[in-house]
Design a protein that fits this description.
Order of helices and strands: EHEEEEEEEEEHHHHHHHHHHH
CATH superfamily of the largest domain: Cytochrome c-like domain
Number of strands: 10
Shape: elongated
Structural class: alpha+beta
Bound molecules: heme C, copper (II) ion
Strand content: 15-25%
Strand order of the largest sheet: 1-8-5-2-3
Helix content: 25-40%
CATH class of the largest domain: Mainly Alpha
Largest sheet: 5 strands, mixed
Number of domains: 2
Number of helices: 12
């Protein structure tokens, strides 16, 4: 069951103009909220919490107190706006739905860059307050998955499973395995065991079964989704997990030794884990798409893995998951 992403949040950026105004006092008295950007270590956004009513324009005057940052709103299609030191960037936002919106920085300004987040609370007009729309909990919650549990496979492919090789045997797979629901809720290793036990596939060697797994995983994505996932990954994940998914991004070492990094301002032990190596088959092949998505949405528990739930749409989180499998499987791409 493939769920299309529900409603996109409509946010209108009426105006986004960067103007260099050296004299500070000038805009202080003028209309709008002056929003300062600083690296997370020295305070992040000030103010961090904003409130506005539905339909009311929110005028923001963005400026940076240190390096260039970038302002964006989670789960929206609006492009980010750069925020330069010593300059004012004006943005006007109009929200058409009540709720809490996360604003964040999209530039890798520091190790704790992802912590540069704030919240805009959008309130319903007076007299129209209603109970908030019920939102389905994420799939990992509905399935009751423990996304912090260790996972490792008892079977490993001899070589990279290939969807291209698997295609030829695809017609022998029982239909029950070809639903999107099956894909979302099973790890490749579980799927391998299920297929291995199928009488119709008895003649296939173990690697042939792995190639079928890769082919079915590819059937559950599209070239467009993979392209979107690739782009999101490069911008948001590669700095920690590495361009090639090997867990060796530019910040990986810093994350692994928090106490040694006195400049991060983080308490020791706050980031103690190396970013996951997505090429490690024993680990990743034991995770289901629902598990990976859950980790992306909720983040780690004090591990340094950010939570992306308020930043990405559900569609974007699935695109990321689809792309992560590319570190395990050979897939066709145009
Ligand atoms: C600031 C560094 C950092 C960034 C940025 C980051 N991660 Fe992570 N990630 C980690 C660390 C550290 C872990 C290992 C600890 C854990 O699982 O909580 C991890 C673990 C994960 C896992 C868990 C894998 C498993 O087997 O349970 C997934 C999935 C993941 N990251 C996806 C992503 C995606 C997708 C992005 C980008 C949207 C991303 N990460 C960005 C640091 C990062
Ligand atoms: Cu920043």
């Amino acid at each position: 069951m493939r769920k299309e992403w529900l409603a996109r949040i409509l946010i209108v950026v009426l105006l986004a103009a960067a103007v260099g105004i050296p004299a500070l006092g000038w805009w202080r008295g003028s209309q709008g909220v002056l929003l300062h950007a600083r690296m997370a270590e020295t305070g992040g956004w000030t103010p961090e919490n904003l409130t506005v009513a539905v339909g009311q324009p929110l005028h923001l005057r963005l400026t940076s107190d240190d390096v260039t940052h970038s302002f964006a709103i989670g789960q929206s299609d609006q492009p980010s706006v750069d925020v330069h030191p010593g300059e004012i960037t004006e943005v006007t936002l109009v929200f058409d739905k009540p709720g809490k919106y996360t604003f964040y920085c999209t530039r890798w300004c520091s190790l704790n860059h992802w912590r540069m987040r704030g919240v805009i609370e959008v309130t319903a007009p007076h007299g129209q307050e209603s109970t908030p729309e019920a939102v389905d909990p994420p799939l990992y919650v509905r399935l009751g998955l423990d996304i912090d549990a260790q996972h490792a496979t008892d079977v490993l492919p001899a070589e990279t499973p290939s969807a291209i090789r698997g295609k030829g045997q695809g017609q022998n797979i029982p239909a029950a395995y070809l639903t999107h629901e099956y894909y979302l809720t099973h790890s490749p290793a579980e799927f391998w065991h299920a297929l291995r036990a199928e009488p119709a596939l008895q003649q296939l060697p173990d690697q042939g079964i792995w190639d079928l797994v890769a082919w079915v995983w590819q059937r559950n994505t599209t070239p467009q989704e993979l392209a979107e996932g690739r782009q999101l990954y490069a911008i948001n994940c590669a700095a920690c997990h590495g361009e090639q998914g090997q867990g060796n991004g530019v910040f990986a070492d810093d994350l692994a030794q928090p106490a040694a990094d006195e400049h991060s301002g983080m308490a020791a032990g706050e980031m103690t884990t190396r970013p996951t190596d997505f090429t490690a088959a024993d680990h990743i092949l034991a995770a289901s798409p629902a598990h990976l998505q859950g980790k992306i949405i909720r983040g780690g528990m004090g591990t340094g893995m950010p939570y992306w739930g308020p930043i990405f749409t559900e569609e974007q989180t699935w695109a990321l998951v689809a792309y992560l499998w590319k570190f395990q499987f050979e897939m066709e791409e145009p």
